[in-house]
Amino acid sequence: MMIKYERPPSAAARWARRIARFAFGLFVGALLAHRFGPLVTPHFVALMVLSAGLAALAVVLAMIGLVRFWQVAAMGGIASFVALVYAAVPLAAAGYGLAEYFSKPAIYDVSTDTVTPPPWIKPPNAAQGWLKRSPEVTPADREAQVLAYPGLTGRRYDGALDRVFEGVKKVAEQSGITIIAEEGVENARADLEDMAVKPSDAAPADSDPDDVPIPLQRPEIVTGEMPVGRRASDILLQGEWQTLMTGLRFDVLIRLREEAETTFVDMRVAARYGGHDLGLGAEFADQFLHALDAELLGIAGD
Q1: Which residues contact 295 (CB under 8 A, 6 or more apart)?
Q2: Comparing C-alpha atoms, which of 32, 26, 80, 81 is closest to residue 53?
């Protein structure tokens, strides 16, 4: 007589698979809606936290299912394994975010010039929702940036303002920065106009050699009272940038300043939402400046 053993089903394993699938779908849907759709960052972060919480619950239930499978051969081993696979994605993303949150300083605005950072042309303004932060960047924030990112400094190039300006625009486009505002661009155009020789300015062939036009100093461009960190001869470019995978949005400002036949480039990057940029701002600024070095290879100074 053949004896047939009845394997008890594991309710924990079944629920683990259902919850893990839902957590994974929530994670993917929120990611796509934030990267390509209208979902704002505060809502996106809330959905990521919910997804990670559900994934953690699914892992607990999956472990119970595996224990039951080992002890009494309960049905649900495959369901528990599938649950662990689905839950791994949101948990890995949450783990990476937490690691960056606790290993990087709690700042959202970084600048290559921590004393007089470039001023915003259009001050960023976004509803923070539940991601509250201080509206002003304090000196303590700048000190924390210097300690965390000591190599984040501006660049000096032995080139004219117009040449460096063209390189900055090219690298900005390649880096995915969308320029939304410009100031002082006429300073680069003025350099180009000074290099051009107009027919009316050239001396006629039969003119008196003593009748030589006297070059005059370029008049200073007056734009009213300049904010701190801004000169009339500076060029400011403000743009928007978002990360490739998650679509986190950042505001970017680039300042070009002509100094003693050289051009100095400073950069400012600020997360649009929340009081912590997870180190992404400094990383992007460093990558941009290295790309600019490569673009302007041959005229880089100190």
Answers
A1: 167, 170, 171
A2: 26
Q: What is the DSSP string of 241-298?
A: EE-TTT--EEEEEEEEEEETTEEEEEEEEEESSSS--TTHHHHHHHHHHHHHHHHTTT
How far apart CA 284 and CA 290 sit, in angstroms, is 10
Cβ-Cβ contacts under 8 Å for 17 (sequence gap 6 or more): 58, 62, 79, 80, 82, 83, 86
Reduce the DSSP state of residue 135 to 3 states and report it.
Answer: coil
What is residue 265's predicted lDDT score, i.e. its pLDDT? 96
Digit-coded pLDDT (tens) for 205-219: 555 555 555 554 444
Output phi, psi for 249, to 5 deg: -100, 140
Count the neighbouring beta carbons within 10 Å of the beta carbon of residue 257. 24
| Contact status, residue 75 vs residue 286, Cβ threshold 8 Å | no
Helix (H, G, I), strand (E, B) or coil at 134: coil
Beta bridge partners of 111: 268
pTM more than 0.85: no
Model confidence pLDDT, tens digit, residues 219-248: 444 445 667 777 888 999 999 999 999 999
Using a 10 angstrom Cβ sphere, with 0-12 exposed, 13-18 middle and 19 or more buried, the burial of residue 73 is exposed
- Answer for the pair 178, 241: CB distance below 8 angstroms, yes or no: yes
d(CA 124, CA 252): 10
Residue-by-residue DSSP string for 168-220? HHHHHHHTT-EEEEEESTHHHHHHHHHHS--GGGSPPTTS-TT--PPP-PPPP
CA atoms within 13 A on the CB side of 148: 26
- Asked if 120 contacts 253 with a C-beta cutoff of 8 angstroms, the reply is yes
d(CA 258, CA 232): 11
CA 172/CA 89 separation, integer angstroms: 32
